[in-house]
Specification:
The chain is built from eleven helices and 34 strands. By secondary structure, the chain is an alpha+beta fold. The strands form six sheets. Strands 3, 4, 6, 14, 17, 18 and 19 form a seven-stranded mixed beta sheet that branches. α9 packs antiparallel against α10.
Length: 711
């Protein structure tokens, strides 16, 4: 059942209101001021509908009437302002329009504190504070009263018993001169500057208000004439609604299920005849900080500075200098002709003509310069961007519509009945060795035969008019089944036992020198069930589903989950019942035939599952390996003889070193040494030939094996 349609209809009314000219909704962080004749009338718009989701949010709809220009004040927790700014929708359904939604802005406290002359953002010490107000006049008691202007704060090493410690001193300029006072001796400090003192107190007030969790007032302004209906809707954080169930079992009747929804009113208003809807689903919901003013860090660009330039003098053009010299000569000649009168006249200076200036020289205006001068500059907002928002439905959720209006005071909780029907179910005992090795659990195979989606929650089970235990279910859709367990079945015992069969060879084949084998692994788990009660019981035995094991017997399980088999066993009173669960898996191995020893090959020759062609090839391998072994033994014997002669020659060398070279024994050793060298040379020739023969035999075996393809 979809929950989206009622919201679609509700929002469509708001869209139609805007389309016919009822006016947009504006959000502002300041207070709205109206003219005297448009002063708002106070109005109260109570909450009329609440939709609670299982994702930690709820939709609240207020509905009521306003008269003329009206103002609606609503209180919210500071933490809920972000959800309000993200989701609030307003409707004026009587031809009016929505003016503003005003609320107190919240400046980041660190940024606000940074605007004061005294910076309190980093928890400054007394010395840090005095350092910040250097140049200000203060009055201190140390212990006598001292008034002076702060020059600075310094740290000095002072003796303290057997140690030397750091101590801060404030340096002051007083009427009597410079004075240094230890801050450790200061009892009181008063700022003489009243404005600075007030600013410090204001900064402390801002710091205190930053920790205040008081509620904020949001003012909604509706403009229009006459009485008319208005709606206010928004999403707000809310406790998830929970469910709990009661299940009554009886041997004569169907199980009866009663379900309750648990809701809490954590809002600032009482719910009086509120239409309540409970939605089971997980719509995506998040919090975005829209309440806190955000500032972008902008790069600081410094103007490029250049060093001041020295004035420069320039030499005159040579042609101009010659012309000036010529004109100066003519002036002197005229002065001689005019006499003494001309001689007393001042010398004429050469005049440099200047071109008349043109308006606008040195300034390049753009194409809009004329419009800018006339005040006709225009910003085209249509080119600023395009909306990319799209509307659509996202999935479906299940809802519980509470039939009767709900009354619930603020900070109160309530239980509301949502299920009160008979359901289908069969009593069973559920055995799982990992949970309890001896006894199964009393349980029920519960089927949701209602038309409702049952949310997860605890179930209190009553059997034969008595409390039987507690159970828990996950979300259960209509028509689906779940097992629940609520108590230990002490009347039933289960004895498990294991049997592991020896690994058996199933197939052998040879391919390109590699022997491929398959082995079957078989295990059996037996369960002996004893029922000491008075009634026949159906016992569900859970057995882990493990890879790569596959089920052999029984051929199929009665139930199968992602990680469990379930087998049903009927246990009669006083009659043992057994269940054998047989599983197997086949393991595959491969090994190079050259790496097999004779005993391993003989094992495959004796196996009945090995084909005759494979056995014939293995016998040929044994024969060829035998020939190779003989060649190896022959070579090793030759190498042994060489080693013996080498050791004998070492002994002869040691003896010859002790004998005179002209002695008979020395000459005898020389003769024997020569004979041994001839023998070693012959042996080494045979060893070389033997190695070549070995290599030839091994290559022949490899060629033979590569060519095999047998099953």
């Amino acid at each position: 059942m979809a929950i989206s349609n009622p919201f679609k209809r509700w929002l469509a009314r708001a869209a139609i209101a805007v389309a016919v000219g009822l006016g947009p909704m504006f959000l502002s962080a300041g207070s709205m001021s109206l003219s005297a004749q448009e002063k708002d009338k106070a109005a109260d718009i109570p909450v009329k509908r609440v939709v609670m989701f299982s994702s930690g949010v709820a939709f609240f709809e207020h509905a009521g009437k306003v008269d003329g220009n009206a103002s609606v004040d609503m209180k919210f927790n500071v933490k809920d302002i972000n959800d309000l700014l993200k989701s609030m929708v307003l409707q004026d359904l009587g031809g009016g329009r929505i003016s503003t939604v005003s609320y107190g802005s919240r400046e980041p406290i660190t940024r606000t504190l940074g605007t004061f002359s005294i910076d309190l953002t980093r928890n400054p010490t007394l010395g840090d504070l005095l350092q910040q107000i250097r140049g200000e006049q203060i009055e201190i008691d140390a212990p006598t009263k001292v008034t002076g202007t702060i020059l600075g704060v310094e740290t000095r090493k002072v003796p303290a018993g057997d140690q030397v410690v750091d101590e801060k001193f404030v340096n002051l300029l007083t009427a009597d001169g410079l004075r240094s006072v230890s801050l450790g001796n200061v009892g009181r400090i008063k700022l003489s500057n009243a404005k600075l003192d007030a600013e410090l107190r204001q900064a402390l007030m801002v710091l205190a208000m930053g920790k205040d969790s008081e509620k904020k007032t949001v003012s909604l302004s509706f403009l229009g004439g006459g009485k008319r209906d208005v709606n206010i809707g928004y999403i707000q954080e809310a406790p998830i609604w929970k469910t709990s169930y009661r299940l009554v079992l009886s041997d004569d009747e169907k199980p009866f299920l009663q379900g309750w929804a648990i809701v809490e009113n954590t809002t600032e208003a009482d719910w009086d005849n509120v239409t309540l809807t409970l939605v089971s689903g997980r719509p995506i919901s998040f919090v975005m900080d829209l309440y806190q003013p955000l500032y972008v860090n902008r790069p600081e660009v410094k103007p490029e500075l250049y060093s001041s330039l020295r004035p420069r003098t320039y030499e005159q053009d040579l042609a101009s200098a010659d012309d000036e010299f010529r004109r100066a000569g003519e002036v002197q000649e005229k002065a001689k002709q005019l006499g003494d009168q001309m001689r007393r006249a001042p010398a004429l200076a050469a005049a440099v003509p200047q071109a008349p200036g043109k308006p606008g020289d040195g300034y390049a205006f753009g194409a809009n310069a004329g419009q800018a001068a006339k005040g006709e500059y225009r910003m085209d907002l249509q080119r600023g961007g395009q909306s990319v928002a799209q509307a659509g439905d996202v999935g479906e959720m299940f809802r519980y519509q509470i039939a009767t209006p709900v009354k619930l005071q603020r900070s109160q909780s309530a239980m509301l009945p949502i299920v009160n029907e008979s359901v289908a179910g069969d009593k069973v005992s559920i055995y799982n060795e990992s949970q309890h090795a001896k006894h199964p659990l009393n349980g029920l195979k519960l089927k949701n035969t209602t038309d409702l989606h049952l949310m997860q929650g605890p179930i209190t089970v009553f059997d034969d008019n008595a409390y039987a235990g507690d159970a828990q279910i996950q979300a259960l859709q209509p028509g689906t089944e779940r097992l629940i367990s609520y108590a230990m079945d002490l009347d039933t015992e289960v004895a498990p036992s294991n049997k592991q069969d020896p690994q058996s060879l199933t197939t052998v084949r040879i391919s390109k020198g590699t022997l491929y084998t398959s082995h079957k692994n078989v295990r059996t788990k037996s369960f002996l069930v004893k029922n000491s009660g008075k009634k026949s019981k159906k016992v569900l035995i859970e057995h882990p589903l493990q890879q790569p094991w596959t089920l052999v017997s029984p051929k199929e399980a009665d139930e199968k989950t992602r990680d469990q088999y379930r087998f049903a066993v009927t246990a009669e009173p006083g009659k043992p019942a057994t269940l054998d669960v047989k599983e197997e898996y086949t393991s595959n191995e491969q090994v190079a035939i050259n790496n097999l020893d004779s005993n391993t090959i003989q094992y495959y020759l004796n196996a009945t599952v090995v084909g005759e062609d494979v056995k014939k090839a293995l016998r040929e391998v044994i024969t060829r390996k035998g020939v190779i072994a003989q060649a190896v033994a022959k070579r090793q014997e030759l190498e042994r003889q060489v080693t013996v002669i080498d050791q004998e020659q070492k002994r002869i060398r040691d003896n010859m070193a002790q004998l005179p070279k002209d002695s008979d024994l020395f000459r005898r050793y020389v003769t024997k040494f020569t004979q041994q060298e001839d023998t070693i040379e012959g042996l080494r020739t045979q060893i070389t030939a033997s190695l070549a023969e070995e290599q030839k035999l091994r290559q022949s075996l490899d060629t033979y094996l590569i060519g095999l393809e047998l099953k």
